[in-house]
Every structure is written in C-alpha cells, then in structure tokens.
Design goal:
By secondary structure, this protein is an alpha/beta fold. Helix content is about 35%, strand content about 20%.
C-alpha cells in the first residue's frame, strides 16, 4: 500500500463571534502520514485497536461494537489487542502496532498516565492515534481526537437525581449516609464520576460519605467490598449506595441479600449506578435499583467518522462527547426495549 498523506488543518474558526459546534479544535496544523502497511495491497485500511480488557458488561458491548464496525466487508483490517487490565501491556501494544506500520491506532487506555513516550512515538511514525472512552495525560497535539463521555457531568447527574428524589420523599433535611463504590484508580471514568459526586455531596451539609473505596468496575470486587464493609460493622447506617458502574452495584446487591438488608424503591437503601446496561433496566423494573446514569459504549461509529474525515483530508474535532441520559425505576419499562447493550 502506498503511503498516503492526510493533512489535517486545525484552526479556530470564528463566525459572528461564535465557535462552530461548541467542540474543541487543535490550534495548529498537523501533517499526519499514514503507515505504509507493508504487504497489504488490498485497499483495506489497517487499524490497530487497544482495548482495556473484559472487566464489565459495558466493556463487552464496547468491544463488540468495534468488532462489528471495523470489518473487512466495511473496508478495514482490524488488529484487536486485549489489554487484559494491564497498562504495561497496553503500552507494549502501542509500540507493536507502530512497528507493524498500521494506518490508524484506536486507544482505549486503562489509566491516563504513562502514555507520553508511546503516543509521541506514534506521532513520529506518522500514525494518527484516536483516543476513546478514557483520556490520557498527554498534550492534545500528540493525538487526533478524544471520543467519550463527560464523566464529571455523569456524576453530577447522579447527585441531582438523588437531591430531587430525597425532596420528593420529604427527606431533604435528613442526615444521609452514603457509601461510594469507585472504579479503577487512575481511570478517567472513575476520576470524573468521583469528582462530580464529591462536589455534589459537598453542597449538601446533611449528606456524608461514610465509606468509599475502589472495586475496579467489576462485579466480584463490588460484592467483596460490600461484604467486607458489612462484616466490619463500622458503618451503622447506610441510606444510599452510589456505584460508579452497574456491575459493581450488582455485586453489592448480592452482599446485601446475604446480609438480609433491604434496598431498592420498596427497601431501605437507595441504589444508584452508572452505565445503563440492559440488566440495570431489569433490576429497576424488579424494584432493586433506583436509577442508572447512561454511559454509551457504542463509540465505534464516531471513531469511524473521524477516520473517514482524515481519509478525505478534512478537519476533525478534538473532542466528541456522547449524548446520554439518566433512567429510573419509574421509566425503565418505557425504554428497556430500546436498549442495544
């Protein structure tokens, strides 16, 4: 395959004092030279995709979305790499893909840090890197675009819903004891959601977080964490459990069941989670979960759009945020049939 040069001119465009589309754009011109992909003369675009692992149902839906989008029938040769929940493995994969001279790299990092050298190496090799889902602590001129959710806004949505719910229940002046199950340390989703939640809690003097800790976005660790907390007996009152993804709260439910504790709209503990998986809708309809904040895993189509724009030599946005909602036990039945994951 001959080397093709894609010029991406990133300039701030002003029209009547407005910045188009409300998205961020790079402030300098970049020359992005696609890898030669030796031995590939079939016209396919060779894409390397580095995934985090298989830590949750959300991740499975996210992976399948990529595998169903970047197919040979659609004009791609996809090299898929499972990071197996190891940031070191992900960094090594980046260098391997650079050596293979792929045309594009899609990176879904486990943690934000440790990417400076690998990302710069890809840029020096002329391989555009598109970062998706979680972010990286690297100057934005080193990669093409970031695609994903506004995680801090997700955290704020959860707190806003809780505030409204407590008011509706006549409990706005009560002391509210909250347990917070956090995602993987250093992951963008965990950082953003935690910040949004903590800022919201600080605005309510009668709310207090009685326990918080990492359960790595997994169902097993969510269950273990909650069982350990309950066995210690140090937390006497739990009014709310906020879990930074659905799988952790599914695990927490098992721990609560084993300890004979009631939860859900008809129980004692308010249950809030993130992701809006199909199973969370089933749990809301079954009276086990109050609310789930959507985090859309279907990112592949936007990634493909970025690649198509680069292939055509057109300008791309630096940031693409997905549109998301919050769902509750009151409206779950209206939306469950629309769920794709």
């Amino acid at each position: 395959m001959k080397k093709r040069i894609v010029a991406v001119t990133c300039v701030l465009m002003f029209c009547l004092g407005l910045i188009g589309c409300g998205t961020e754009r790079a402030d300098k011109t970049q020359q992005l030279i696609r890898g030669a992909a030796p031995g590939y003369n079939d016209g396919l675009i060779r894409v390397g995709m580095i995934q985090t692992g298989k830590e949750s149902d959300w991740r499975d839906a996210n992976t399948n979305d990529y595998l169903n989008t970047f197919t040979k029938e659609r004009g791609y040769d996809l090299i898929y790499i499972d990071g197996n929940s190891s940031s070191e493995r992900q960094v090594k994969a980046m260098y391997d893909l650079i050596q293979q001279k792929v045309d594009y790299i899609i990176l879904q990092p486990i943690v934000e840090t440790g990417w400076e050298d690998a990302i710069h190496a890809a840029k020096e090799a002329g391989i555009p890197v598109i970062v998706a889902d979680r972010k990286i602590a690297v100057d934005e001129t080193e990669y093409v675009s970031w695609i994903g959710s506004d995680f801090e806004e997700e955290g704020r949505k959860a707190v806003t819903w809780l505030d409204q719910y407590l008011t509706e229940q006549g409990r706005e002046n009560e002391t509210i004891h909250i347990v917070l199950l956090e995602g993987t340390e250093g992951a963008t989703a965990a950082i953003g959601r935690t910040n949004g939640i903590l800022h919201g809690v600080e605005e309510h003097p009668n709310w207090t977080i009685v326990d918080r800790g990492c359960a790595n976005f997994t169902q097993g660790e969510g269950q273990t964490y909650m069982e350990n907390l309950l066995s210690k007996g140090t937390v006497k009152d739990i009014d709310v459990i906020i879990s930074e993804n659905d799988n952790m709260i599914f695990g927490a439910m098992k721990a609560l069941d084993r300890n004979g504790m009631s939860y859900g709209p008809e129980g004692d503990i308010i249950m809030i989670s993130f992701d809006a998986l199909y199973e969370s809708f089933e749990n809301m309809m079954a009276g086990k979960l109050h609310a789930t904040v959507e985090c859309n895993p279907l990112l592949a189509s936007t990634v493909e759009t970025v690649i198509e724009e680069l292939e055509a030599g057109r300008e791309v946005d630096k940031i693409y945020n997905t549109e998301e909602n919050i769902y509750t036990y009151e409206n779950a039945a209206d939306y469950i049939d629309q769920r794709k994951y």
